[in-house]
Amino acid sequence: MPWESDVSEDEVLLLYAVDNKRERKWVHEVDMKRRQFGEFHHLMKQLHQDEVKFKEYFRMSINQFEHLMSLIKDDIEKKEVNYRESISAEERLALCLR
User: What is the C-alpha to C-alpha distance for residues 84 and 35, in angstroms, rounded to an integer?
Assistant: First the structure.
């Protein structure tokens, strides 16, 4: 009978977990190319050249954005590590405001 098997429930769960384990990555390929293809890295250059569009996009002037950045940069900035690039404080603030 199946319920009289010598295999415990824990062993079955362990085998299931090992069998269904996917290859995990620190950073997905899409995220690795965000400097090339990401909205922030392309759009910010253009928005900094046009004060009106910057204000429409973020609902604040460039000076206000930079002042806010200077106030909170130390709190939202992450350290760079060898195996992945962290998101910049400016990009974090832009994402939050958007």
Answer: 13
